[in-house]
Design goal:
The protein is built from nine helices and 14 strands. It is of the alpha+beta class. β4 and β5 form a beta hairpin.
Length: 289
């Protein structure tokens, strides 16, 4: 039974590719991981593997389960949930870019808050009632725009909601610098109706073409092939759950986890040699009541 929890936000500091392997019949050779609805995600197994690879504290690492190839199988006392997409930068005619999300993506955070609250006996809240009502007719809500707007080269109607962050509770939950980015660049809640939000968000993805050269001749050996990345400043959310061990209480274990990862930059996706895959982990440290 899990007795303590950590709410995390993960920000892409570089383009990030956490892939599924080569896929046939897709528009890109090496796509990123996606959830069952088609939104970019980071599966728990990939995120946990990256965290284990970046933690140097052996006492904490042993609580994340056995390593591949170990003869002795050790259970993990820390469970890490899939990192769900929350905010993604979208191109805008005003101020270069704006953070974009949808009611569906906000529902992921709401679910994770429910899990966190149940374990921590907390009362963190995300109010999306006015958001759902506002976008129900296919019109976006925005802290910046009023009337017609162009997001990722897509024209859509928007309703201004300058107090959206406070009314929803996002102003309390999100890292402070993300709030500052939203204040400067804005936030738009795209409608889920007719999958408009999903279609616009997919246009934020970065496609890079690569080749492998023959070292001696400096000619193409393999390629070109295409790789998909989520852009810089994309924000994901996840939860870590801790349980008691023989030598450590769940709360102490989660505190160790927070101390080792809070404000820490780690690599995910195996692209660090080409300057990709660097994310920063932010741990929710606010009050729980």
């Amino acid at each position: 039974m899990y007795k303590s929890a950590v709410l995390m936000f993960l920000e892409a500091l570089t383009p990030v590719h956490v892939g599924t392997g080569r896929e046939e019949a897709l528009h890109v050779d090496l796509p990123v991981q996606r959830d069952e609805f088609g939104f970019p995600t980071m599966w728990a197994s990939s995120l946990k593997g990256a965290i284990k690879a970046n933690i140097m504290d052996n006492d904490l690492k042993k609580h994340l389960g056995s390593e591949p190839g170990e003869l002795e199988t050790r259970p993990s006392h820390i469970s890490i949930l899939d990192a769900k997409l929350l905010l993604i930068p979208a191109r805008s005619l005003d101020n270069v870019w704006i953070y974009a999300t949808t009611p569906h993506l906000l529902s992921y955070l709401k679910t994770y808050l429910d899990i966190y609250n149940d374990v921590e006996n907390a009362k963190l809240r995300l109010d999306t009632s006015h958001i759902i009502q506002g976008v129900s007719k296919g019109i976006a809500l925005s802290t910046k725009f009023s009337g017609r707007a162009f997001i990722n080269e897509t024209e859509l109607d928007t309703i201004p909601d300058p107090d959206l962050l406070n009314r929803s509770g996002l102003s309390i939950l999100l890292p402070k610098h993300i709030i500052e980015e939203i204040t400067n660049h804005g936030l738009v809640i795209l409608p889920d109706k007719d999958n408009k939000g999903l279609a616009i968000i997919r246009k934020s993805m970065v496609i890079q073409y690569r080749v492998k050269l023959k070292r001696a001749e400096k000619t193409v050996d393999t390629g070109p092939w295409s790789e998909e990345y989520v852009p810089i400043k994309t924000l994901f959310t996840s939860v870590a759950l801790c349980r008691d061990t023989q030598d450590k209480k769940a709360q102490d274990l989660c505190n160790d986890f927070k101390n080792k990862l809070s404000n820490r930059s780690i690599y995910v996706g195996g692209k660090e040699t080409i300057g990709r895959g660097l994310i920063k982990v932010y741990v929710y440290e606010g009050g729980t009541k």
